[in-house]
Write a structure and sequence with these properties.
221 residues; Arp2/3 complex 21 kDa subunit ARPC3; 69% helix; transport
């Protein structure tokens, strides 16, 4: 985080969470079937946030599932879910490392939420809104666009934004920028594959779990 703007990431995080709460997105969770899907998504995403690959040179690749949650539950509920995942995974990492409560790095809560949750979720929501407006409403286009393309592009965009933020703040690492961009392409492909595969399965077998997939829009004759 740039020393000149130490509070920007917490402010962005709290602003996004406040907007999400104001939308009251938990109302659809009154349905038992959706509750099961939402709890399963929380578990899967928390596991993703506790597993990462460190490549030679220190480059870290980590899937977030932010675009997937945005596709399944919409942006407001996705943001609240991602913040819960952030807290749960941070506690899980501390437990796996054998750290005590006082040793948990709570300062990492806001950067993790912004770059792994807020930024990719917001980018995915914007891309999906553009697709709904400009592309034909067809189930195949929904799966391909919302599941694959929006997830990959959102992960790539959030990764580039984070890299630029680090450069702007002077936190240049030992990994060359070209290697960082190559790693982001690999990460974007992984996000697209994971999200697209699960969205395709859920649209076919559990469409009630995909709140952005409306029957009246995509199944009209």
């Amino acid at each position: 985080m740039p020393a000149t703007l130490p509070f920007l990431l917490p402010v962005l995080s709290l602003a996004g969470l406040a907007w999400a709460v104001w939308q009251r997105p938990w109302r659809p969770l009154a349905h038992d079937d959706l509750q099961h899907g939402w709890l399963g998504a929380l578990v899967l995403t928390a596991l993703l946030w506790t597993v990462r690959a460190t490549l030679p040179g220190g480059l870290v690749l980590q899937l977030t599932g932010a675009a997937l949650l945005t596709t399944l539950f919409g942006l407001p509920l996705a943001l609240l879910s991602l913040f819960a995942v952030d807290v749960i995974s941070l506690l899980g990492l501390a437990f796996l490392a054998g750290s005590g409560w006082q040793e948990i790095g709570w300062a990492a809560l806001w950067p993790r939420f912004v770059w792994m949750g807020l930024a990719p979720a917001l980018l995915a929501a914007v891309l999906q809104a553009a697709m709904r407006r400009w592309l034909p409403h067809h189930p195949f286009i929904f799966i391909l666009g919302h599941g694959y393309f929006s997830a990959g592009l959102a992960a790539l965009g959030a990764g580039v934004a984070q890299a630029l933020w680090r450069e702007w703040g002077g936190a240049r690492g030992v990994v060359p920028l070209a290697d960082v961009l190559t790693g982001l392409l690999v990460l974007a492909f992984g996000e697209a594959f994971l999200s697209g595969m699960l969205v395709a399965v859920f649209v076919v077998y559990r469409p009630q779990w995909v709140l952005t997939f409306l029957d009246e829009d995509y199944l009209r004759r």
